[in-house]
């Protein structure tokens, strides 16, 4: 799945008021006001697999998707310990996924095309804890990375990567052993699965 990242504001808006030290030795001061960064996620009809493009301030699932509460049906989180999905429904009073995790990718089912404003802070260098088996880490950066670049630190420790094809509503699979793969990058706020051969840490560096 490929979604276009639209920035609504700059990463940080800083308003500076400076009174500098004069020759007579008067004291100086610096005031900085920081406004959180926003971005817009673009969802299609059907199942979408995505990463949040910011580190969430409010992680409550109902609150995060409140602007689209009548247009989505389910959110699914991959439970890497159980190797199965936990399912959140806005119609249920008891849910296994009340809070969202920036480090994870999520499935969400939309009845029709929709947008979501995401309020939060910009990601820096990130690390993701992977277990042996399938994992669904998030990719929050505002630019694409090649698979080779993303997985360089764990080059021989993973087997497959899967991305969701929104139009076909099925997974495309990247294999290290294949000479012809359906994709070669992880793009802006895409969700992805990775099959790890062992427990390890995936470091994602905020550089192109």
Identify the notable features of this structure and list them briefly:
single chain; 208 residues; mainly beta; four-stranded antiparallel sheet
Structure description:
The chain is mainly β and 208 residues long. The chain folds into 2 domains: 32 residues, no CATH class; 167 residues, no CATH class. The chain is built from 2 helices and 18 strands. The strands form 6 sheets. A 4-stranded antiparallel β-sheet has the order 1-4-10-6, with no helix packed on it. Strands 5-9-7-8 form a 4-stranded antiparallel β-sheet, with no helix packed on it. A 4-stranded antiparallel β-sheet has the order 12-17-14-15, with no helix packed on it. β14 and β15 form a beta hairpin. The chain is globular and about 45 Å long. The two termini are 20 Å apart. The N terminus is likely disordered.
